[in-house]
Specification:
Strand order of the largest sheet: 5-8-7-6-9
Order of helices and strands: HEEEEEHEEHEEEEEEEE
CATH architecture of the domain at 105-184: Beta Barrel
Structural class: alpha+beta
Length: about 270
C-alpha cells in the first residue's frame, strides 16, 4: 500500500512537470506565431509602400536625380541622371511625376516653303480631334533649323522642320501625346477680299480668275496680296460679289469681253 502511494506521487509529479513543460512549449509556439504574423505584416506594409497610386488619371514622366561624382582608390565615377531600372538614388528621390498640364506645347512639322514664313509670336489655331474636336489657340514659341524627326525617320525627300507652339489655354480634355492639327496665321487682314488659291491661274505672266457670266466664264486679271496654301488675298480686279471657277473651264465655256479693262484675251482660243 505504501509502495503504491509512492508510485502515485511520483506519477503525479511527473505529470505536473510534463504539464508545465507543455504549457511553456505552447507559450513559446504562440510567441513564435505572433512574431511571424508581425513579420508578415511588416512585409505586407513594405510591399504596399512600393505600390504608387496616382492622384489622378494621366501620363507620368520619369524624373532625374542629381548627378554626383565620386572618387576612390579604384578610380572615379558618377551616379544620378534620368531615373530608370537599376539607377542608384537617394531614399527621398522621386522616380515619377505628373507633367505640368497648365503649360503645354505642340510639336508640329512645317514644310520648307511654309517654314520661311513662320515667325515667333504668330497666332495658331489648334484642333484636337481626340478631345471631341476641341479648338483652342496658341503662339509660335520657336522653330528648329534642323530637319524634323518625322522626316529623318521616314526618309522623305520633302524637307520639313519642327516648330514648337505654346498653347494659350490648356483644357482638361487635352492630354499629352494626342495629335493636333495646327493652322498658323501668317498675317491678319481685316475687311479683305480673298479667294481660294487654286482658283487663280497664270496666263501670259498675269494672274487671272474665271468669273462666271450668264452663259460662260470670263478671264479677269487680278492683283494679289498675301498668299497661303488655302487662300489668297485679292487687292484688285474683283468686286467681291462674283462667282468664280475653282478649276479651269473648258475652252468652249470661256469668252472674251472688251467691256472691262481688267479682262484679258483667252490665249487658248484659236
Amino acid at each position: 500500500m505504501k509502495k503504491a502511494l509512492i508510485e502515485k506521487q511520483k506519477t503525479e509529479r511527473k505529470l505536473a512537470a510534463t504539464k508545465k513543460i507543455g504549457e511553456a512549449d505552447i507559450r513559446q509556439k504562440k510567441a513564435g506565431i505572433m512574431q511571424e504574423k508581425m513579420r508578415a505584416q511588416t512585409f505586407a506594409d513594405q510591399i504596399s509602400a512600393m505600390t504608387i497610386i496616382a492622384q489622378r488619371d494621366g501620363i507620368v514622366m520619369r524624373t532625374e536625380s542629381p548627378r554626383i561624382m565620386v572618387s576612390g582608390s579604384t578610380g572615379t565615377g558618377s551616379f544620378g541622371g534620368p531615373v530608370r531600372e537599376g539607377s542608384v538614388i537617394f531614399l527621398s528621390t522621386p522616380v515619377l511625376q505628373f507633367p505640368d498640364l497648365s503649360r503645354m506645347q505642340v510639336s508640329a512639322d512645317a514644310a520648307e516653303a511654309d517654314f520661311r514664313k513662320i515667325e515667333k509670336g504668330q497666332k495658331v489655331f489648334i484642333t484636337v480631334d481626340a478631345a471631341e474636336k476641341l479648338v483652342t489657340t496658341g503662339k509660335i514659341n520657336r522653330k528648329s533649323l534642323a530637319s524634323s524627326a518625322a522626316q529623318r525617320y521616314s526618309g522623305s525627300k520633302v524637307k520639313s522642320y519642327e516648330i514648337i507652339i505654346d498653347i494659350d489655354s490648356c483644357h482638361s480634355k487635352i492630354k499629352p501625346g494626342l495629335s493636333a492639327n495646327c493652322e498658323i496665321v501668317l498675317k491678319e487682314e481685316k475687311d479683305t477680299l480673298f479667294v481660294p488659291t487654286l482658283a487663280i491661274f497664270e496666263k501670259d505672266s498675269s494672274r487671272i480668275v474665271y468669273v462666271k457670266g450668264k452663259r460662260a466664264f470670263v478671264p479677269v486679271k487680278v492683283e494679289t496680296g498675301t498668299s497661303g496654301s488655302s487662300f489668297t488675298i485679292i487687292t484688285g480686279g474683283l468686286e467681291g460679289d462674283e462667282t468664280i471657277a475653282l478649276t479651269e473651264p473648258p475652252n468652249s465655256l470661256i469668252v472674251y469681253e472688251t467691256t472691262g479693262k481688267d479682262t484679258i484675251r483667252n490665249l487658248n482660243q484659236k
